[in-house]
Amino acid sequence: MRRNECIAMLLAGGEGRRLGVLTKDLAKPAVFFGGKYRIIDFTLSNCVHSGIETVGVLTQYQPLVLNQYLGIGTPWGLDRRDGGMHVLPPFVRSKGGTWYKGTANAIYQNIGFIERYDPEYVLIISGDHIYKMDYDLMLEAHKRNRADATIAVITVPWADASRFGILSVDEEGRVTEFAEKPKKPASNLASMGVYIFSWPVLRDALIRDEAEKGSSNDFGKDIIPTMLREQARLFSYRFDGYWKDVGTIESLWEANMDLLADEPDLRLNDRSWRIFSVNPNQPAQYVAPEAKVNSSLINEGCQVSGEVNRSVLFHGVTVKEGSLVEDSVIMPGATIGAGARVIRAIVGERAVVGDGCQVGSVDSVDIAVVGSGEVLTDENKLREAEPV
Amino acid sequence: MNLPMLGVINLIHETDDMGGLTANRCLATVPFGGRYRLIDFTLSSMVNSGIPRVAVFAHTKFRSLMDHIGSGTNWDLHRKGNGLFVLPPSMEDQTDFGKGDLYHFYRHRDYFTRSSPFEYVVVSRSHMVSNVDFAQVLEDHRQRGADITVVCKRDPGGFSGLARKVMVNEAGRITDMQDHYGRLSSDIASMEMYVLSKELLLDLVESSLARGQDHFVRQAILSNLDRLTVNAYLHEGWLGIVNNISGYYRHSMELLRPDVWHELFFRSGPIYTKVKDEPPTRYHRSANVSHSLVANGCDIEGTVYNSILFRGVKVHKGAVVRNSIVMQNGIVGENGSLENCILDKEVEIRPLQQLRGAEDLPFLAVKRKVI
C-alpha cells in the first residue's frame, strides 16, 4: 500500500432530521443542492482539488441512495488503484459490533482502515456543509504550527454564535477555549467541523475516549475539550470564504437562493475548482416560445414552458405552460402542472404539482415543502408552509 | 441482455461536406445538439441496444475522437474483455491511406476473428443522428432470413444531407442503390447501417479485395444485390443526416421541436457523452430566452431566440442571438448580435459586432476565431 501523508475521513452518517420530508429516505449528505449537486459533492470535490487521494466515507443512516450515488468514486476521480474512496458503514464483529455511537466513535471503529494507509495526518470533515476550501493550505498551517490538532474556523454573526461550537484563540491562533453551542458565546469564531489531527495524537485520544464510560464519543463534545484540558497544541485555521450548514429547510432554501445573487459568494463556474457530481445524462434544457426565465439556475433535461423567477431547477424538471415558479427550489424530475403557482417553496424529487395547484405564497415567512414523490392533484388545494 | 452482435463505426472515407467544421476534426466529432458529438448517437444506440463490443475504425483527424471517447467509460464501454476498441488505420506505407475501407477492414480482421461468440456484425457510420434499436433490426434480419439488412428511412420531404437513395420492392428487398450524388427517384435513403453475419462480412472482404474492389458499400454490397438478399429495415423514428452545412443547420434546428427532442433523447435510452462537470446554466435578471436549447454552464444576460447554446456559452448584456448555433465556450459580447450563424467552439464575438447569415446558408465562424 502506497503511503499517504494525509487521508480524509468524511462523516456522512447525518440523519438531517430537521430537513423533514426531504430526508425521509435520504441521508443528509445526499440531499440535493444547487441545481445539480448533492451536498456531499462539495467536500468530495474539495478533497480531490486539495490533493487528497484517499477518502473514507462513514455512512450510517439511510445509506442506500448515498451508497449507490458514491459507487467507487468515479465521478470525483476517486477510483484509484491505491487508496481512492471507500464507503465505511458500521460492521459486525465476532463479538457484537455496533452502530457508530458518535463522530469520534465512528473514527475509532475504523482505526484499522486508517492504519492500512499509515498516514501522518488525518482530515476529519463532514458531508453536511456547502463550501469550497483548499485543505492543503490548512495542512500547511497545521505543520507550521507543529500542532496536534487544527480546527477550521469562520466568523459568524454574533446572533447565530450560540448555534455553533465556539472557539476563543490567542494572537497566534492557538485555541484557549472551546464551548459547544454556548448560551453566552465568548467569541464569534465558529468551528466549521473541519479538523486536521496528527494521527498518533488522534489515535491515542480516540482509544482513551472509548474507554471513558460517560463519554458521548463526539469530537466537539469530548475529544476537543479533553485535548484542550490536557494542553495539547490546538490551533485554529481561519477560513473566510462561503460556508453554510444546510441543516434546516430554511437554510437549504436560503443557500440555494444565495447562488442567484448577481455576484454570488459561492461561485459554481470556477473552472479551476469544479464541483464534480454524478452525471444524469440529460439533454440540453428546452425553453419553449412562451417561457420566461429570469434570475435562475436551470440544469440539463429541463423543459420550461411557464414563468420561472429567482429559482433553482434541477435536472429533468418540467414546468408546464401558464405556471409560475418563483423564489423556489425544484428537485430532479419534478413536474409543475399547467397554471400551477409555486412560490417560496421546495418541491422534492419526482414530486408532481398538478395543474392549477398552488404551493406556498408570497406572504408566508416559512418555506412550503412538497415531499419526494408526493403528488398534489386537487386543483383547489393550497399547500401552505408548515412551521418546522 | 447482450446481443450476439459486434458494432463497427466505420469512419473511413465518410462523406463529409462540412467545410470549416471538419477542418481540424473528423465528422464523427462535430459538436451537435448542445452537448454531444455526432458519434455519441450511434455509440449510445449500440450500447442501449445491448451491443457489448464496439470498434471505431478511425481514419483521419482523429485526435478529437480519442480525446472525446477515451476508454469508453461514459458509454459504459470500459469493460473487461468486451467494450470499446478504437482502431486507427494500420498501414504499411502512405499509399495505403487512400485505399478503400475494405482494405482497412482486412487489416483489422483480427478484431472480427477474435470476437468468437459473436455471430453478427453491424457496420455503421457516425453522421446519421438517430436513436435506433439494433435489437429490433437483428430480430427483423433473422426472421426474414436476409443476407444483409440495411436500416433505411423514408422521407417524402427529401433529405438535406448527402445520402444514398435506395429502391425497395414490395417484399422489402433492395433492388438498387446509388452513391451519395445519384438521381435515383426514391424517397427512401440508406442510414448506412448494415447488419450481416460475421462470416459473410469476412467473405465479402476477401472476395472483393481479390477482385480489386476495395469499397464496402459501393462495391461489395452494390455489385452483389442480385446474388444476396439485401433487405431494407425502415426506421420509424427521427433521423438527421448531418454531413453538410445545410443538413447540420436544418437538423439542429429540428431539435427545437419538443416531439423530436423527446424522441431522440428519451424514447429508447439516454444519449451518452463526455462528462464536463459544468454547473447549471445561469439566467440573469436581464435574460430573455425563448424557443431555445441551452446546455449547462451557460451564463445569459442577453436575448436568445430560436437558437442552440452549447456548454459554457456566455451571452453578455444587450446581445441578441437569433436562429443561431453557438458551440462550447462561445462568447457574444455586449450589444453584439447574431442571426443565422453557426459559431464553432470558443469563438468570440466582440461587443457591438453584428453578424448575419442567409436563412438557407448560415454564416460559419471557425474554431477560436475572434470577430
From TrEMBL, chain A:
The keyword Protease does not apply. The keyword Membrane does not apply. The record marks Q60, W99 as: Could play a key role in the communication between the regulatory and the substrate sites. Residues 8-260 form the Nucleotidyl transferase domain. Its EC number is 2.7.7.27. One of its GO terms (biological process) is glycogen biosynthetic process. Belongs to the bacterial/plant glucose-1-phosphate adenylyltransferase family. PANTHER family: GLUCOSE-1-PHOSPHATE ADENYLYLTRANSFERASE, GLUCOSE-1-PHOSPHATE ADENYLYLTRANSFERASE-RELATED. Involved in the biosynthesis of ADP-glucose, a building block required for the elongation reactions to produce glycogen. Catalyzes the reaction between ATP and alpha-D-glucose 1-phosphate (G1P) to produce pyrophosphate and ADP-Glc. This is Glucose-1-phosphate adenylyltransferase. The gene is glgC.
